[in-house]
Design goal:
It is built from 9 helices and 5 strands, in the order αβαβαβααβαβααα. The chain has about 170 residues and is an alpha/beta fold. Helix 6 links the parallel strand 4 and strand 5. The longest helix has 16 residues, at about 135-150. About 30% of the residues are buried.
Length: about 170
């Protein structure tokens, strides 16, 4: 059993970046499971610890509790953005939770489905990666680079204000 845990089958590949706040949450509609798994595998091979349902939902726990806890424990949300995702109430809830935690959201867009207003709201401030432009493999390489930039120590420093008093409490 130790060999299986060390092999990465359970979401913690050898050499993955671990610890609180270093996890990538992968949000997707069930119809996009194959793409989500491909993204998860590529990110984990690149050394990032990922959380993906249903693989990482602890048996015996409530599914919604597991998802909310995983989003809370993550640093970034990767969204597989598709027609199925925009039709999914669950994906919308995951975007809202990640946004409320101020987690960066990186969307990998797999088709040209129009975005509903809630998705526009949560994705309006970020550039997404278009899988159609250079193909899926090129898009996943770009995605890995974007995740790496967000999770680098330099990115942590840029999100941490050097002078707490300089933060504004007035809404934009």
């Amino acid at each position: 059993m130790a060999e299986l845990a060390d092999s990465g089958i359970y979401g913690n590949p050898a050499g993955a970046t671990t610890g609180p706040g270093r996890r990538v949450f992968i949000s997707y509609a069930s119809q996009d499971a194959a793409m989500a798994q491909q993204v998860c595998t590529a990110l984990e091979r690149a050394g990032f610890l990922c959380w993906i349902a249903p693989r990482d939902v602890v048996p015996g726990t409530l599914y919604a509790d597991g998802i909310v806890r995983a989003i809370n424990d993550s640093t970034i949300l990767v969204l597989i953005l598709s027609q199925s995702a925009v039709a999914s109430a669950h994906v919308g809830k995951e975007l809202e939770r990640a946004s409320s935690k101020r987690h960066p959201i990186i969307a990998l867009r797999t088709d040209n489905a129009p975005l509903p207003p809630a998705f526009e709201y949560f994705l309006s401030e970020s550039q997404w990666i278009d899988a159609g432009a250079g193909g899926t493999n090129a898009a996943i390489v770009s995605l890995i680079g974007a995740v790496r930039q967000h999770l680098s120590p330099a990115a942590d420093m840029s999100r941490t204000p050097s002078h707490p008093a300089s933060q504004s409490s007035t809404p934009l």
